[in-house]
Design goal:
The structure is a homodimer of 101-residue chains. In chain A, 57% of the residues lie in helices and 14% in strands. With 101 residues, chain A is α+β, with helices and mostly antiparallel strands. Chain A has a single domain, classed as Arc Repressor Mutant, subunit A. The first copy, chain A, binds a DNA duplex (30 and 30 nucleotides) through helix 5. Chains A, B: GO terms for molecular function: DNA binding; DNA-binding transcription factor activity.
Chain lengths: 101, 101
DNA sequence: TAGGGATATCGGAAAAAGTCGATATATATT
DNA sequence: AATATATATCGACTTTTTCCGATATCCCTA
């Protein structure tokens, strides 16, 4: 049994994490403009945290769950960590559901 | 809003439930021949339970979780309940991942 | 209509996930 | 070097999920 798939579905089994993924689909529409970097690199943890309305530690943890599942990737720029979607992972997941699951 | 999606991902967040879905993809290959009905109607709870190696109550519960998520459907025939995959749900899920998530 | 087999439901113990506040670490600025 | 800011990690507590045994329900046949 494929434990990677299981990890992906667990990562998707949370309302806030699903919301974060949707926000990251269109950062311009979902977040205020970023001063220190464009949205190409992603959105910084602080902005995601403000929008989610949960504590910093919880959102940081959620982002690393999404990252371990391969659904997002992060880039450190200075003191900020920017997270963005890994679209390839979603395409693969879509195919997995059509063939594997 | 996306609570149906959440329910689906929760249903998929369990090793045994994922296995059951895969067994149901090819019942002929996964289960012994059924005496009281062909595999078109699905596979009865008892066979799934034996293969899963968990208790009857747990497997019954798992099947109803999958059913509430819309991933399987059941047919009662006499004293048996047969479960089969709802392939439409998987096609829809695949599309949801391409567009919604 | 009684008994037996298949499935569903209930109640609970243990494990996992959710969530927080406190603290550690990394980086930037002065 | 000291301080400030952003993020990550830790420890604890609460909620949810997992999985079981016991029991109820449904349906068949004698």
């Amino acid at each position: 049994m494929n434990s990677k798939q299981l990890e992906i579905f667990k990562a998707l089994s949370n309302k806030t994490r699903l919301e974060i993924l949707q926000w990251l689909k269109d950062p311009e529409a979902s977040f205020p403009a970023q001063v220190h970097a464009g949205f190409e690199v992603g959105v910084c943890v602080g902005e995601i945290q403000r929008k989610a309305g949960l504590t910093q530690s919880t959102v940081s943890e959620y982002l690393s769950i999404l990252q371990r599942a391969g659904l997002v990737e992060s880039t450190r720029v200075g003191q900020w960590t920017y997270y963005k979607r890994n679209e390839v992972a979603f395409e693969e997941l879509s195919k997995i559901i059509q063939s594997d699951i």
